[in-house]
Amino acid sequence: xxxxxxxGMLTGFAHTAICVSDVAEATRWYSDVLGLRVLxxxxxxxxxxxxxxxxxxxxxxxxxxAAIMGVGADDRVLELIEYPEVANRDVDRGRPDVTRPGxxxxxxxxxxxxxxxxxxxxxxxxxxxxxxxxxxxxxxxxFHDPWGTVFILMEKRREDHPYWSQLVP
Length: 169
Description:
By secondary structure, this protein is of the alpha+beta class.
């Protein structure tokens, strides 16, 4: 007999965290280049509370620097996070790879994909696709940030539907 489900217990998504090597630099990039609002400027957490929260995930001493970025002041935000006490890992600075286990990409919605792509290119953003595709009722194109996080930029055909149900009548 199956156990209880989480239906009704989970009420929404809070954030997506992106690990970066310099949270202050990343905050400037996400604000200046992508135009996201700085909802909570860079701050540092250290000490007993964060040790108790993350000591089994991050080597001690647990120190993190973070900033919260978003379009609006709701729970759907990006958390930029840096672990300054963790030794630099060998980071593959090659082409970002959406096939690695873990976070594969972040989806962003825009009203004008041609104009938004042109503006991002003018700001020096590197795109992973050469053009704009039409797929599942969306127009899409892919780019990455300077730290290798991949983004899909999406323009919905039907504003009255969420991006994932553009083909639903």
